[in-house]
Amino acid sequence: MPPTITAFESSPDRGRGQARDMRVRWALEEIGLPYDVRLVSFAAMKQPAHLALHPFGQIPTYQDGDLALFESGAIVLHLAERHDGLLPREANARARAIAWMFAALNTMEPPIVELGMAMLFERDKSWYADRLPILQDRARIRLGELTRRLGKADWLDGAFSAGDLMTVTVLRRLNTSGLLKEYPDLAAYVARGEARPAFKRAFDAQLAVFRAADS
Ligand code: GTB
After folding, report:
1. From the CB of 24, is ligand 1 less than 6 Å away?
2. Nearest protein Cα to ligand 1, atom 17
3. How does the average pLDDT of the chain come out, rounded?
4. What is the mean pLDDT of residues 173-188?
5. Counting atoms of ligand 1 from 1, which one is nearest the CA of 58?
6. Nearest residue to 42 via CA among 54, 30, 33
7. Are 83 and 24 in contact (CB under 8 A)?
8. CB distance 18 to ligand 1 below 6 Å
9. Which of 10, 21, 47, 86 could make a disulfide contact with 162, Cβ separation 3.0–4.6 Å?
10. CA of 90 to the centre of ligand 1 (A)
11. Are 57 and 127 found together in one domain?
12. Given a cut of 90, is residue 194 above it in pLDDT?
């Protein structure tokens, strides 16, 4: 039996690969592991059956035999550790790639998500115009640091790894903010990630969910 992941039955981004099942799909495609997808509604995510899999009532989840996992980072790390293609074999390079995964989730993602959430949910607030530049500048600090480290390299530390996969998915959340345009090397880095055949397969699969629901 292939592993089963969960994804939104109806994603608010209309299938543009912003929901976090995209990371897991992309990782599965990179390692060439077939998988099933169980679509869940917002209501079903808060029901006991789903809460038994995911304590916070969210997607994605991952089930493979006796193993049930939640948290996109933990799922991608699990896949990367057990299959070739997402982590270097050499121990130190492997540890550094895992550090980039954590950096993506723990250092890059918080200011980027905070900015995205404000742009989505706080536009009508009286303080939005004052808060927006503050959030943009917080994101810019991390983007500046990241682009300095990346330089003109293709990937963050040698060959493409799960660290790049995670970082690209996090940077893609800036799509609607326009901020990435200020960092052409990061924009090119994201484009390189999106050009990978495995990314395209994953993206098309989750877009197909939206198209099927819309038809
Ligand atoms: N830390 C967890 C992880 O990495 O797995 C976070 C999981 C998470 O935030 N899941 C979201 C969820 O299930 C979907 S990805 N939300 C429902 C809920 O909490 O009730 C976040 C997301 C959703 C939609 C868009 N979008 O449409 O643009 C982007 C990101």
Report:
1. no
2. 58
3. 97
4. 96
5. 13
6. 54
7. no
8. yes
9. 86
10. 33
11. no
12. yes
- Domain hosting 139: range is 91-196
Which residue lies with its CA nearest to atom 6 of ligand 1?
A: 71
Average pLDDT for 38-59: 98
Integer Cα distance of 12 and 18 in angstroms: 9
If asked whether residues 24 and 108 sit together in one domain, one would say no
CA distances 47 to 9, 56, 93, 201, Å, are 15, 11, 41, 31
Of 58, 105, 171, 207, the one to substitute when testing ligand 1's pocket (max ligand atoms within 8 A of C-beta) is 58
| Residue 214 pLDDT class (50, 70, 90 cuts) | confident
Q: 149, 156 in Cβ contact below 8 A?
A: yes
pLDDT band at 215 (very low <50, low <70, confident <90, very high): confident
CATH number for 209: 3.40.30.10
Q: Is the CB–ligand 1 distance for residue 169 below 6 Å?
A: no
The first and second tokens of residue 85, run together, are: 């293609």
Confidence class for position 147, pLDDT limits 50, 70, 90: very high
Task: Check whether residue 100 and residue 185 sit in a common domain.
Answer: yes
